[in-house]
């Protein structure tokens, strides 16, 4: 029931937003589709400021919360109503929206929401707001404000998912996170999927100290617990035990191991003087039109290089069934699944935002920034993949009873 209500609320907001966009009306004004989101952010920011103000010294003096007052704030997008928290001693002076202030500096609200998500440091954000709007916001206040995103991040991580995803890419990024006064490498596990309607969606992100099949198993179990019943094709790197972890949770899922990862690992063990010629002989294997032709090309590769690079060719043979799944499908699907380029492209966009950070104070500090960066990136994911109508019909044939088309 809750899931249906959330879905209905989302559809209503989406419909209202589209109508207002077409008519040129503000999305953030009093009756704007996104006004509740803006109000929620401003209210949370003011709550964070009060929490920062009510430090140990204030509380020891007996100062506590004392309800809220409401007022209307005029912005560049219209008028919105906010709730300002109060303290007993009336010593709280909010910095974001000051007492008796009824006009918010033009676009300040969107800049506060956006600057942190673009990777700007607290120092840069404070300086920018001071330069542009002559408003001082301390680092502690900014930290408290961004911490108010944490419930939103946790709710997003736990949100219900669709029952079916057609293609899913699974990969990890690595960052330095502070642990007991030292920086430790942590892995951020990301799952990027294509739903049955061809839309791209980040299904989840998780943090662990290292990348391994055991943790991936817990990630996949979480997806299952959130409503995912079936994945048609999963695209992964060549991590040991990964395919088994996937099929433990989703036994019908076809596994495609990334060809590019296999090539990179192979070249590590090929002498530099041989790499150019070896790659020329290897390309006809994975670029073959059919699986039968690919197997013939692999045999030819083994005849020429098998004695010199026995272990390299042995690796291709051992992983052959997972490396060649894409041969079952047409060119459109092959291009999507034979590498993990889709999720690696997403990771490149994330790293543009996180590259200025030498390390993170906690796992949640890392997740907050990736979550906000993802919110910016997904704005481009409004349309289904190119020629999805045709692709969906083919998937329905390849996966009968699992990929159901909306024909009514």
Automatic annotation (TrEMBL):
Pfam families the UniProt entry points to: Transposase_mut
Molecular function GO terms recorded: DNA binding; transposase activity
Top-level taxon: Bacteria
Record key words, sorted: DNA recombination, DNA-binding, Transposable element, Transposition
Residue segments, region Disordered: 54-93
Biased composition (Polar residues): 69-84
Database matches in InterPro entries: Transposase_mutator
Gene Ontology terms describing biological process: DNA transposition
Family label: Belongs to the transposase mutator family.
Database matches in PANTHER family: MUTATOR FAMILY TRANSPOSASE (PTHR33217:SF8), TRANSPOSASE FOR INSERTION SEQUENCE ELEMENT IS1081 (PTHR33217)
Function: Required for the transposition of the insertion element.
Protein's UniProt name: Mutator family transposase
Gene source species: Mucilaginibacter celer
